[in-house]
């Protein structure tokens, strides 16, 4: 089956929730939030720390996630950006695929990857242990007790 | 040959090329984000594992590529605001061309402020 596009000048044929419209609105609302979330993310990780990218290591991440503020900041970024990016990729797949089976498979894969990474990232943020037992002391943040 | 329709927003010129760039940068950022969630997840495996992988982000080759990533995000983010303004602001379509150059200008200014610092860190 080929992809069917409804003629834009006729009324919507299906009496269902207008998911395309919600998706369209989501791209714009999440995009506005992501500008702030990502700019602050880049500034706080690459510009503010002495040494920039060279200063990033486990201890740096542990220091940030010791503060619930940055945990929630990163969580918001993770969810908003993954869903925004996946939905954007879905639009692109819809544009370029010719066969319905191929389109469905790709869109299904996109949302599967999205769900897996959002779950993984959420678990990482909230089950993170800044002072894991058995880790070499020089890799840990200074606030960890000596083991 | 059909004659050129008047007043289209998405065919030819700035309206079209801004969209092409928006699409390419969107895809690039998406694939980076997949990798970035995975590399960050290594903090849950072992501090040493995370440090080994993050050290590759500090090499000259990847360090310079990060400039491309930052440029892509600045453009995509600011142009996304432009798209929303075209859609929601009554004068948006009228000023889409000016807004494109504001987007490029703002992205360039922030990029110029960031790039030298970042390169100093990568090569310093
Ligand atoms: C920085 C803030 C961002 C803003 C303001 C923004 C804004 C937008 C907007 C308005 C659209 C158009 C949606 C439509 O036409 O319905 C879009 C598309 C898209 N965005 Fe973003 N976005 C941002 C961040 C991101 C991030 C972090 C990613 C990747 C994870 C991403 C990936 C995409 C993709 C793949 C598309 C589809 C492009 C297309 O259909 O041509 N964006 N974005």
UniProtKB/TrEMBL annotation, chain A:
UniProt-recorded Gene Ontology molecular function terms: metal ion binding
GO CC term, one of those recorded: membrane
Cross-referenced InterPro entries: SQR/QFR_C/D, SuccDH_FuR_B_TM-su
Transmembrane segments: 25-48, 68-85, 106-128
Keyword check for Transmembrane helix: yes
Main localisation: membrane
Name of one Pfam family that matches: Sdh_cyt
Protein localization: Membrane
Assigned keywords, A-Z: Heme, Iron, Membrane, Metal-binding, Transmembrane, Transmembrane helix
Name by which UniProt lists this protein: Unannotated protein
Organism encoding this protein: freshwater metagenome
TrEMBL record, chain B:
Record localization: Membrane
UniProt GO molecular function: electron transfer activity; metal ion binding
Alphabetized UniProt keyword annotations: Heme, Iron, Membrane, Metal-binding, Transmembrane, Transmembrane helix
Pfam families: Sdh_cyt
GO cellular component, one term: membrane
InterPro entries: SdhC_prok, SQR/QFR_C/D, Succ_DH_cytb556, SuccDH_FuR_B_TM-su
Listed GO biological process terms: tricarboxylic acid cycle
Membrane-spanning ranges: 20-38, 50-78, 98-115
NCBIfam families the record matches: succ_dehyd_cytB (TIGR02970)
Protein name per its UniProtKB record: Unannotated protein
Organism: freshwater metagenome
Taxonomic classification: unclassified sequences, metagenomes, ecological metagenomes
């Amino acid at each position: 089956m080929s992809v069917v596009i409804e003629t834009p000048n006729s009324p919507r044929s299906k009496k269902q929730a207008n998911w395309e419209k919600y998706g369209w609105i989501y791209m714009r609302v999440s995009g506005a939030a992501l500008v702030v979330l990502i700019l602050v993310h880049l500034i706080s990780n690459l510009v503010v720390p002495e040494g920039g990218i060279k200063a990033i290591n486990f201890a740096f991440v542990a220091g940030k996630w010791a503060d619930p503020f940055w945990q929630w900041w990163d969580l918001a970024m993770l969810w908003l950006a993954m869903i925004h990016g996946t939905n954007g990729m879905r639009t692109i797949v819809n544009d370029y695929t010719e066969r319905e089976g191929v389109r469905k498979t790709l869109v299904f894969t996109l949302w599967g990857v999205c769900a897996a990474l959002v779950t993984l990232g959420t678990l990482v943020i909230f089950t993170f242990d800044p002072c894991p037992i058995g880790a070499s002391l020089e890799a840990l943040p200074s606030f960890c007790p000596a083991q | 040959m059909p004659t050129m329709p008047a007043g289209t927003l998405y065919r030819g010129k700035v309206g079209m090329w801004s969209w092409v760039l928006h699409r390419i940068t969107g895809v690039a950022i998406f694939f980076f984000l997949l990798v970035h969630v995975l590399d960050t997840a290594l903090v849950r495996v072992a501090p040493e594992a995370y440090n080994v992988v993050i050290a590759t982000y500090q090499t000259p080759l990847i360090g310079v590529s990060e400039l491309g990533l930052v440029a892509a995000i600045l453009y995509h983010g600011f142009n996304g605001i432009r798209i929303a303004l075209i859609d929601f602001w009554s004068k948006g379509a009228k000023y889409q061309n000016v807004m494109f150059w504001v987007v490029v200008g703002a992205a360039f200014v922030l990029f110029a402020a960031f790039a030298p610092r970042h390169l100093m860190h990568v090569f310093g």
